[in-house]
Specification:
By secondary structure, this protein is of the alpha/beta class. Helices cover 41% and strands 12% of the residues. The protein is built from 17 helices and 15 strands. The strands form four sheets. The chain has a six-stranded mixed sheet with strand order 1-2-15-12-10-11, with helices on both faces. Helix 1 (13-19) packs antiparallel against helix 3 (58-70), helix 6 runs parallel beside helix 9 and helix 6 runs antiparallel to helix 12 (344-356). The protein binds glucose-6-phosphate. Residues 156-159, 209-211, 214, 217, 266-268, 354, 493 line the site of glucose-6-phosphate.
Amino acid sequence: MDRWQALTDVPVYPHLVGLAQKPFDLTSPGALAPTRIEQYCCSAAGFDLLYAAQRVNDEVLARLQELADQCELVKQFQQMRRGAIMNRIHGFASEERQVLHTACRDLFAENPAEPVATGQAEREIAKLRDFLEDLENDTLTNAHGRPFDTMIHVGIGGSDLGPRSVYEALRAYVRPGRQVFFVSNVDPDDAAAVLRRVNLDTTLVNVVSKSGTTLETLTNESLIRGAFEAQGLDPAQHCIAVTGEGSPMDSPAGYLRSFYMFDYIGGRYSSTSMVGAVMLGFALGIEAVLEFLEGASLMDQAAEESELQQNLPLLLALLGVWNHTFLGNATVAVLPYSQALHRFSAHLQQCDMESNGKSVSRYGESVALKTGPILWGEPGTNGQHAFFQLLHQGTEIVPVEFIGFRHSQYEEDLEIEGSTSQQKLVANLLAQSLAMAMGQKDENPNRRFPGNRPNLILLADRLTPKIMGGLLALYEAKIVFQGFCWNINSFDQEGVQLGKVLAGRVLALMGDGQEEGGADLSPEMALVKMVKMGRE
Ligand code: G6Q
């Protein structure tokens, strides 16, 4: 949006503000007519986005298209995929990097958007294929010639949340006899609990850290290496690494095999790089990895469509901007009606809030409007028995993004009282969508449902590796489009630095550390004293 430095300067902005004064009334008779439901549907990469239950009409959609055009959202996405430097704050010190997570999956086109990065991705895939074949044909075994059957994936933040949510989503396809555990927290109980459950003799440890310097990951790696040594096993025979080229972890001595992720891939966007692929390849096999990448690639291509109502990621993004910036809703709930997606909202929490939780524009100026919403969620139907009360009758209006599937993964289902469990699941999703939109009148005020709670449904046939790749890429593109629209840098995370620095200072004081000079205690020391007092 270099022509417009702030969303408020974009010509269509006042028109959208005007339309937001009287948004489409979902509670009016016939509001959810069959024609509207059929018309307000956008399909791409195996997904249907049903958005009739949004507070939009054709006029709002036309203005949102103008917003996309005036902010050049698709053009910026195309530039990003082709290697433009997007991770920057103009005029100030910043990361100044390309943003090329899309290159990791641009393997299926004859002419990749950014051939150099895709070439690097192809080389890593080839290394992964060799590694998996070596495991398969027993070239790579433990010291006693036994095959590895377990992987502990050690990483945190972007090196954990995406891969973990993908593993959980695709557990149904894990190869018999293989299993993966994750260790992320520096809380020693996290590693201890996993170590109790595995047989280290046949376990591979996949240490994942782009920087190779992350406190939690290095601590957990040392702890786990110590556990191998305690059992008389050589950790170097069990550890593999995914790291940045030239990082402190980029050392063949300590690891059986190493895979690279590159500078131009942000941690929270890295699930389709080796950060997710090594774990996924071990668990599911190389073919599933390729399907996963293909699904993501199809969604990236869909995001280059110029028509809003044909571009599923752009539409998802701009409906979110409408709900947040123009209708003023502070949060958004992503509610998958799929138990397998139980960690997906946790991944999105990071991907969305670390990307778009920003207060300065790409020009270093304070933003005039709110940027990223608070994103949260849990699977349905469980959530219905928990926080849905607030969604239906609370004073805070929460736009909802439902995710559902026509078929279950395992297809182990039974008809009970005339319907299968999958039918019950999907029926509940549809019912919740309608109840939130249409509401209900009642003489008893406590039984009234105000309705007009915007929601949408993302629907696919079945949660497969390909669909999971598409879902991941869909939300990545949504986040990127929204960041472009708010004209913020969605690719850095300066906001996590201060806490890290203070933690280092506090940690030094937690030992026998003394404060230098000054009669007054610092807040850090005062707090440390409070913690220590509890132990005396
Ligand atoms: C993500 C962030 C952050 C990062 C972790 C782990 O976008 O940069 O969550 O992924 O701090 O970093 P390493 O992979 O370098 O250990």
